[in-house]
Amino acid sequence: LAFLVTMSWNMLGFLISTTTKSYAITDLMGTSAFTLSALATMHSALNTQWNTVSRSWAKPMRPKLLALAVGLWATRLGSYLSIRMSKIQSDKRISKHFRKPGEVWLCGDSCYPFNLMAYWIRQALWGWICLLPVTMAADLKGYKNLKGDTLAAAIAPMTLIAGGVGYTLGMGIECIADAQKYGFKTDKSNTVRWRWCDKGLWSLARHPNYFGEMIIWASIFLLALPVAPLWTMISPIFVWYLLRHKTGVPVLEADMEKKYWSHPDFENYMSRTRLLVPFPGKQQSSKSHFGMNGDAV
Fold it and tell me: Are 130 and 238 in contact (CB under 8 A)?
């Protein structure tokens, strides 16, 4: 069900983007797919499945908490990204997949609309993998089995508390980091808004928003335990790997190097800040190359 909802919603986004020739809806459709999928699995657990299981125990609250956590994250991030997109009026991630003047369908660099569809499919798979703990925690068989497992029943309240604390911390870091960077870039009185942001959390780490994102998904995994199986930890691991080694840090670090390598203060900023964790203290020597060494965090 989660896969069907996530994929269907993103395919709708693909159809809208091909019809309107616009990429303004990309982030809004991508993040709202998370909310719709979480709500669908919650409804399945507390309504459809509820009618097929023994009613000797109360409806669990965990599916509701998980749907709320995902919904808050998606609404906040989707709104922020959409507002930011309306300001910059461009999106390099997806604009390259639109047909260029004179290009024939399925030809040229864009290979339109094949590459555009592939982008939306990848976005759907991203959502489905991230939501695996939420999806598996919506299986009422897991709650039924929890009644007969003393250890799991004892752990369940602790994972809720740890997950709730972690989620609050992660959301706080991500919200503050995004707000600080947005304010830095849009403040017309800021004479250096054209360069990298080095205010607030960004003075301590180069990607504090990604650190907050990693904490959020690790915490959602904890919220889903022990109902969701341990193998669903693939969700926070996937988020970490994607941001740290694929579409997040490497792309932005390379872009920063390309833009600011000649600026006298840039090397100093790179050497005195941590890569992800916004914590005071010099993390690496100036000899390391843009935080891509193994010990940078």
Answer: yes
- b/e code 229-240 from CB counts within 10 Å (16+ = b): eeebbebbebbb
Helix (H, G, I), strand (E, B) or coil at 82: helix
Paired tokens of 25: 């809806």
Q: Quote helix, strand, coil % in the chain, to nearest 5.
A: 65, 0, 30
205: β partners? 274
- What dihedral angle (degrees, nearest 10) is formed by the CA atoms of 129, 248, 205, 180? -90
| Number of H-type helices and E-type strands within the chain | 12, 0
Tell me the C-alpha distance between 87 and 82, whole Å: 9
Q: How far apart are CA 265 and CA 225, in angstroms?
A: 46
**Model pTM?**
0.85
| Token pair for 220 | 């959602």
92-130: per-residue pLDDT in tens?
A: 666 666 666 666 666 667 667 778 888 889 999 999 999
Distance CA 101, CA 75 (A): 36
Vertex 214 angle, CA 212 and 216, to 5° = 70
On the CB side of 37, CA atoms within 13 Å amount to 32
Task: List residues bridging with 274 in a β-sheet.
Answer: 205
